[in-house]
Amino acid sequence: MGDTIPGIKEQISLTFLWWRESEIAVRGPYVSGFYTFTARPGMKFVILALEFRNAGIRPEYTPYLDEGEIYTSRGYFYPMWQPIGGIWAEEYSPRESTPQEVQEFVGGSSGGFVNLLPEESVTGCVVFEIPEDQVPLSVQLSGVPPIISLGQD
Questions:
Q1: pLDDT tens digit sequence for 56-86
Q2: Is the pLDDT of residue 152 over 70?
Q3: FRET partner for 115 with CA separation of 20 to 30 A, picked from 11, 59, 73, 138?
Q4: pLDDT band at 18 (very low <50, low <70, confident <90, very high)
Q5: Cis bond leading into 29, ω under 30°?
Q6: DSSP string for residues in 16-39
Q7: CATH code, 115
Q8: Could you give the CA distance from residue 132 to residue 31 in angstroms, rounded to a whole number?
Q9: For residue 133, is it within any domain?
Q10: Would residue 77 count as lying in a domain?
């Protein structure tokens, strides 16, 4: 955490800010705003916050991180979480997010497809869903060269 990976896309760098386990995750914006999803029974979310920064001299769009997987203490891999059906994914009991939830979960956005001017940055997050009894160890994201260690033994 805290390390910066330069050149993720042209002059866009990527820094991982923090990660945490949670019973809820925020996604959006949807047309009607941000929504909070509750993990399915026996499962939990792992949220990885990140920051894209434009280190170049021209405006540039941030990449959209939509593929990746998390490796757990039991030796299993789980794909990046996306609520199938979005705000209609009943198994996750979606509801409109509170302003506090949106702020706490770095806007509930991936940070992708944002046009950054030189020196500008944007925060976002990626989400994984894993069984409650497993410990997240590392993450691999498509288009991001190194494996991200979550600091667990």
A1: 999 999 999 989 999 999 999 999 999 999 9
A2: no
A3: 138
A4: very high
A5: yes
A6: EEEEEEESEEEEEEETTEEEEEEP
A7: 2.60.40
A8: 31
A9: yes
A10: yes
Q: How many other C-beta atoms can be found within 10 angstroms of the C-beta atom of residue 56?
A: 16
DSSP H helix total and E strand total for the chain: 1, 13
Query: What is the per-residue burial (b if ≥16 Cβ within 10 Å, else e) of 141-153?
Result: beebeeebebeee
Is 17 a domain residue? yes
Residue whose entry in the numeric block shows the structure tokens 């009991």 = 93
Residue 87 has which token pair?
């705000």
Establish if 42 belongs to a structural domain. yes
Domain around 51: 4-143
* Secondary element (H or E) of residue 57: none
- What's the pTM value of the predicted model, to 2 decimals? 0.92
Locate tokens 């990626």: which residue? Answer: 126
Q: Which residues lie across from 141 on neighbouring strands?
A: 68
Task: Read off the pLDDT of residues 94-137 as tens digits, 9 standing for 90 and up.
Answer: 999 999 999 998 777 889 999 999 999 999 999 999 999 999 99
How many angstroms separate the first and last alpha carbons of the chain?
Answer: 15
Provide the token pair at 61.
């769009």
